[in-house]
Amino acid sequence: MIAIPAHLRPLLASVVALLLLYGFAAIRYYDDGFVSTRVILNLLNDNAVLGVVAVGMTFVILSGGIDLSVGAMMGLASIVIAVLVTKAGWHPLAAMIVGVGLTTTLGALMGGLIHVTGIKPFIVTLAGMFFARGLGFCIHLESLGITAPTHQTLAATRISLGSAGSLRLPAILFLGFVLVGTYVATMTRFGRGIHALGGSEEASRLMGIRPGRLRVALYALSGLCSGSAGALLTLYLSAGNHLEGVGLELDAIAAVVVGGTLLTGGVGSVIGTLVGVLIIGVILTIVTFEPDFSAGLTRVVIGGLLLIFVLIQRTLISWSSRTKNRAI
Amino acid sequence: MTGERADPGTPSVRRAWLDRARTSPAFWSALLLAATLIAITLANPDFARIEWRNHRLYGAPVDILQNGTPVMLLALGMTLVIATGGIDLSVGSVLAMSGAVAALLVTRCATPGPLAIAAALGVGTLIGVWNGVLVAYLRLQPIVATLVALVAVRGLALWLTDDQKVPFHEPTLEWLGNGHLLGVPVPIVLAALLALAVLLALRLTVLGLYLPAVGVNPRAARLCGLRVDWLLLFTYGFAGFCAALAGLIVAADIREADVANAGLYLELDAILAVVIGGTSLVGGRPRPIGTLCGALIMQSLTVALQMRAVVTEYALLVKALAVVLACTLQSERFFEWFRARREVRSA
């Protein structure tokens, strides 16, 4: 048997699951045109917002933390952008920079608070979620449409692949986030620090890593990702709406975990998260092909999948620790 | 005690007093509740008025108690779960599920009210026990195990009700939400009874000793011969039971089961109530009184903002700040950091 490195096993399990799910759907809905590049490209197009958020979440979970504020941050960024463009007449790109800057700052503040007070990330980001939702309400009460022509040009930007379909701007950016995220996670000091922190805070401190700075940067990064997702959301909706993204944090966590990143921190990959997002995307696509399948059942399936994957991870970990012990 | 009083000036004595007050979270949360209520009453003199009309109690404080019961119930169950070092994210979904089960049984199967209530409570407890099994036997992190239930249980409830609201008319069920017992609204009576039961169980039985033992060091507790698995099953089951009861009250109050919205984000309110109440999130001594104070603080803030005609959602900002403040005050690390800063500056 080929020896697969222990840290790659969860990723492998995710890839196998993706192939199985896709294969099942491809056989079952072959006549409905499931096997087409258009469907595959739409997997990316339709889930780009979730994907960008999940990339940020991957880093947070790698460090052993969790960020529950992402959905609210995304909504906040989208409404800020909409207000700046529609009410103040800003250029959409400038508005996006301000919106993303705001969520990045809020993320950094949360990171600082986690470090200084030692309160669990779970609670701090929960408060951050309330704060961002409340702030969104203070800025504008309802959904606000964006009709600026430059914004519409951005929304229509796409790479056309002829009859095979096209890749929209959010999907392109999502792939960009995955590439940059993979680089940052595997090739930089920051990425190594995150892995070390997720493995053991005590050990990483003894190695000379400064957890405080790392945490501030980490949650700022997550804020950046969810803010960017908010900017992309305005492209989809041609509007800003702070009520968007309810429950997104759970989908993002599910995508990260299904993609093979361990919730205990230290092990995982951004590529895995891409696979996780695609798995969730395939499930959502299957649902559109199945008329009797309600939105409720989709949640049940996603919940069940999450459970199965966590259990698989547990067994893989206990296997690898058992083999290690035997070697000793 | 008298020695400390005689010389309150020396810093060490003052610090000892401060430390003792700080380590008694129930004291802090009661103080915070009193301060909130006094501040609100000063701003709105009408706030504190309670009337006795038609053999019933009326007034804003009664409203706070009545509207606060769902969060209080969820938070009571959550207190025990958090004391064991766990967390239950699924309570909001269980709340929605229990309302749906009762409403569906009453309308579609013409089940008598009490039986429907029992069935809903049973389903809630069962989901709680399922969480407990995942945590105790499959050794999943509580946050993951209950996240699964959070996602799946509401989905299941939506599927059962075909994404529709289920209105119902059933006297026993409606009585749970709108009835009065000796002039006091039934939800308040139920919450008070449950709180009393929890308090007595913690004070008079070994539960008050075993739960924190599991929370602080489950391995040690297991080695001491505690049935940790059974305790966890019981705790999560109880949290499910509390959530189911809250779900019945919420559904009975509006005479319909609104699965899509009932209890959405309420798990967060419950956790915040527990945190404000001083139960440590890493496990340890459960503080049910603090929890009730925490739930009431949040509810009174909401009601006060409503009385001043402020949009409810602004309350989110206030809640967020209140939580950060409460957690910071309880944080040892923050005080160490603060002290270190001051020493650096004075040196």
Q: What do these coordinates show?
A:
The complex is a heterodimer of chains A (328) and B (347). Chain A has 328 residues and is mainly alpha-helical. Chain A has 14 helices and 4 strands. Chain A has one domain: ABC transporter involved in vitamin B12 uptake, BtuC, CATH 1.10.3470. Chain A is 74% helix and 3% strand. In chain A, the strands form 2 sheets. A two-stranded antiparallel sheet of chain A has the order 1-4. In chain A, strands 2-3 form a two-stranded antiparallel ribbon. In chain A, a hairpin with a 5-residue loop joins strand 2 and strand 3. With 347 residues, chain B is mainly α. Chain B has a single domain, classed as ABC transporter involved in vitamin B12 uptake, BtuC, CATH 1.10.3470. In chain B, the strands form 3 sheets. A two-stranded antiparallel ribbon of chain B has the order 1-2. A two-stranded antiparallel sheet of chain B has the order 3-6. Chain B has a two-stranded antiparallel ribbon with strand order 4-5. In chain B, a hairpin with a 2-residue loop joins strand 1 and strand 2. In chain B, helix 3 runs parallel beside helix 14, helix 4 packs antiparallel against helix 12 and helix 5 runs parallel beside helix 7. The radius of gyration of chain B is 22 Å and the shape is globular. The two termini of chain B are 33 Å apart. Classes of the chains: A mainly alpha (328), B mainly alpha (347).
Mean pLDDT of chain A: 85
- Helix coverage percent of residues of chain A? over 70%
DSSP E strands of chain B, number: 6
Report mean pLDDT of chain B, rounded to a whole number. 82
For the largest beta-sheet of chain A, the strand count, sense and barrel status come to: 2 strands, antiparallel
Count of runs of 4 or more consecutive helical residues of chain B: 16
Q: What percentage of residues of chain B falls in helices of 4 or more residues?
A: over 70%
> What share of the residues of chain B does DSSP label as strand, in percent?
under 5%
Interface with most residues:
A-B, 44 and 50 residues
Q: What radius of gyration of chain A results from the CA coordinates?
A: 20 Å
Structural class of chain A: mainly alpha
Shape of chain A: globular
The oligomeric status of these chains comes to heterodimer
Strand order of the largest sheet of chain B: 1-2
